[in-house]
From TrEMBL:
One of its GO terms (molecular function) is endopeptidase activity. Keywords: Coiled coil, Hydrolase, Protease, Serine protease, Signal. The keyword Coiled coil applies. Residues 231-302 form the PDZ domain. This is Tail-specific protease. Residues 594-635 form a coiled coil. It comes from Parazoarcus communis. NCBIfam families: prc. One of its GO terms (biological process) is signal transduction. Belongs to the peptidase S41A family. Residues 1-18 form the signal peptide. GO terms for cellular component: outer membrane-bounded periplasmic space. InterPro entries: ClpP/crotonase-like_dom_sf, PDZ, PDZ_sf, Peptidase_S41A, Tail-specific_protease, Tail_Prtase_C, TSP_N. It comes from the Bacteria.
Length: 719
């Protein structure tokens, strides 16, 4: 442990003051309660975290780098000279936390605010001059891996291009020069004002999360205000749109859609969508929120139940100059009823071999804990509702069941175990290892199955936690097919420690610590952590895997394994995979909707690899025109395929009929009709997953040997 911290602090503060003669715009200092909270958190994290890491010089360096990244992720505020001056603190933050002397991160934050003032002041001055958009120059808008600017001239040029790009985006959106200047000036002025309103608690929150996240991504510190917000979201009593937001590339971006919320029910928002503006009602002008802090945007979206909020959205799958969409939603609370499982039946296959697939959509693993504790025998839960739906589907003579867990971020572990039990006899479902290395096996102990027929599970990148536990168990038992995308990969367990309760504080003072304490493992031994669940048959993915999912974190816990649990596989569906894969590949070549989705994925992946953009107006308009032309060509192709336009090709219809794809024709016509009425297009992935299950039923019926190795189970199940 190093000492003489006060001397080092004085040297750092003197260096900062010497570099900036003008007085600091704000003076923020840590208080004693924050210093105490940091020291207590460090002791807890060092001793009781699943990945217990000592607070030493090595951890200090990680905290230092992450703190700077939290403040200036795109490296557009600090100069390299600032970083060099701060480097004296690189290996001293551990001593600062343990010694309850937190002046260093506050001194760094003061410099950060000074740089924000300088950069935004320059940005506002640049608006007075305007720009020449005939020049052939590029703007590098992804700068996370670039060095900080070495000179004032270099940082000034970065900001000149940054402001020029902001101007050009608005110009391409149809705004005139006066509107553009007013919009951007207001945007920069608002960002400047927010930086000057920072409080000591804000600085402490950022710093402590830099420490917590340096251990692993799901550990965090919640100050009194953040703790209150977290409690609201966990109780689902927040009146808003039901979306988890995060800051990314100047935009507040949708990270997760809460099942049953207005955003999810609207079916017009997706993970990765960027919020450019917020309006309080349909007849109210948008407030530009580009560059805003996430908590400020959340504050605008929240409101009274029944009131309207309108979002100006730049879609996740669109380029920076794409057309925005206007999404109107009515604020509402999120109740269990709105999250409940639901069912539908899809007819798949050719006309002479139709199969009925029962689809159960489960948005989350819910349970009415209060009703259960009160002894209500009819309490609602995910597994109970699914059991009821399975009974209804059996009465309706479905051939197979598809459980749709897309965008299901998890929930109750008990429900994941109970749900698995609906499809297996009895046996272990998941293993859980704590920080001491002790392993506990969670099992389904109720004999019998609610559904013993062909089963499929549809997952995507947003299927996480409890969803992954269920899908992994179904896959390990050979009980059914996993279809879709690689899942999120969250295989860890968190607990919330109330520091106020530990300190016997009667008022919110110290905050809370969300800490990882255990890890999940499949019954086959491997963890769902990092790798998630790999589907048996993969479908196209629009998800940005580099920025969404456990593997997107730079310090996620690694994949590992333990000894397998004692379990007996109940099916051999893997034997069907070669034939199912061939049928799937043949079918999608004739599915225009599926091919369009594959094109979207390819184009989106190309867009994501870009890190710079032209600042030449002609070039930008050309790029946008090419995108619009591609979409128009696609629309004409769909119309031609179903004979819905003057350019229709009767031969295309004949080919569909000759190939036995009348259902494809109908689905394409339904897609066009939906577009005309303003509704969403058909769910291409759900259609294909259902068709795969239809193939599985047909193969099982035609291959007696396979059917014998996948026998239907007998026995009732009581829920």
């Amino acid at each position: 442990m190093k000492r003489n911290i006060p001397w080092i602090l004085l040297a750092l503060a003197t260096a900062v003051q010497a570099a900036t003669p003008a007085p600091a715009p704000i003076t923020l200092q840590p208080d004693q309660t924050q210093a105490e909270a940091a020291a207590v958190s460090a002791r807890l994290l060092s001793r009781y975290h699943y990945e217990a890491v000592p607070l030493d010089d090595r951890m200090s360096e990680k905290i230092f780098d992450r703190y700077l990244k939290s403040l200036d992720p795109e490296r557009v505020f600090f100069l390299q000279a600032d970083i060099d001056q701060f480097s004296v603190a690189r290996t001293l933050l551990d001593d600062a936390i343990a010694g309850q002397q937190l002046d260093m991160p506050f001194t760094i934050y003061t410099r950060y605010v000074e740089r924000v003032q300088e950069r935004l002041g320059l940005a506002r001055r640049l608006l007075e001059k305007g720009f020449d958009f005939e020049l052939d120059e590029q703007y590098r808008y992804v700068r996370t891996d670039l060095p900080w600017a070495a000179t004032q001239a270099e940082i000034d040029d970065i900001w000149r291009k940054r402001v020029k790009n902001d101007w050009l985006r608005l110009k391409l959106a149809g705004k005139d020069e006066k509107e553009i200047r007013a919009t951007l000036d207001r945007r920069y002025e608002t960002a400047l004002a927010r930086s000057l309103r920072a409080k000591s608690s804000d600085v402490f929150q950022v710093f402590m999360n830099a420490y917590a996240a340096s251990i692993e991504p799901h550990t965090s510190y919640l100050g009194p205000r953040a703790s209150e917000d977290f409690a609201i979201s966990m109780k689902l009593s927040l009146v808003g749109i039901g979306a988890v937001l995060q800051e990314r590339d100047d935009y507040v971006t949708i990270r997760e859609l809460v099942a049953g919320g207005p955003a999810s029910r609207s079916e017009r928002l997706a993970v990765g969508d960027r919020i450019a503006g917020v309006a309080q009602g349909e007849n109210t002008p948008f407030v530009d929120v580009v560059g805003w802090r996430v908590d400020d945007v959340v504050g605008m979206i929240r409101g009274e139940k029944g009131t309207t909020v309108v979002l100006d959205i730049l879609p996740a799958d669109a380029g920076p100059d794409a057309e925005h969409k206007r999404v109107v939603m009515v604020r509402d609370t999120i109740t269990l009823e709105k999250q409940a499982a639901s069912k539908t039946i899809l007819d798949v296959g050719n006309a002479d071999a139709r199969k009925r697939v029962g689809v159960i959509t489960l948005p989350t693993f819910y349970q009415d804990v209060g009703a259960r504790r009160n002894g209500d025998d009819n309490y609602r839960s995910a597994s109970r509702d699914v059991a009821r739906l399975l009974s209804e589907l059996k009465a309706e003579s479905v051939d197979a069941v598809l459980l749709d867990l897309r965008n299901n971020g998890g929930g109750s572990l008990d429900e994941a175990i109970a749900l698995t039990g609906l499809f297996i006899h009895t046996g272990p479902v998941v293993q859980q290892r704590n920080a001491q290395g002790q392993i506990r096996v969670e099992s389904d102990m109720i004999p019998g199955q609610a559904w013993d027929g062909p089963l499929g599970v549809l997952i995507n990148r947003a299927s996480a936690s409890a969803s992954e536990i269920f899908a992994a168990a179904v896959q390990d038992y050979g009980r059914g097919l996993i279809i879709g995308e690689q899942s999120f990969g969250k295989g860890t367990v968190q607990t919330l420690l109330d520091l106020d309760e530990m300190a016997a504080s009667r008022t919110p003072t110290y905050g809370e610590l969300k800490m990882t304490v255990a890890q999940f493992f499949r019954v086959s031994g491997g963890t769902t952590q990092l790798k998630g669940v790999t589907p048996d048959i993969a479908l196209p993915s629009l998800a940005d895997k580099e920025n969404f999912g456990e593997s997107s974190y730079d310090n996620a816990l690694p994949w590992t394994q333990v000894q397998p649990a004692a379990f007996t596989p109940e099916g051999q569906f893997a034997e069907l995979l070669p034939a199912l894969t061939l049928r799937h590949a043949a079918r999608v070549t004739s599915d225009i909707g599926y091919r369009n989705l594959e094109e979207d994925v390819a184009e989106l992946n190309t867009l994501r690899k870009r890190n710079e953009i032209s600042l030449n107006e002609v070039e930008r308009r050309r790029e946008r025109s090419m995108q619009e032309a591609r979409l128009k060509a696609r629309e004409l192709a769909r119309a031609a395929a179903v004979g819905d336009s003057a350019e229709a090709a009767p031969a295309a219809i004949a080919a569909l009929r000759d190939d036995g794809l009348i259902a494809g024709e109908r689905s394409l016509r339904a897609e066009l009709d939906a577009e005309k009425s303003g509704k969403n297009r058909r769910d291409v992935l759900l259609d294909e997953a259902s068709a795969i299950l239809g193939d599985m039923v047909e193969l099982l019926q035609s291959e007696t040997g396979l059917a014998a190795r996948n026998p239907p189970a007998t026995g009732a199940r009581v829920n």
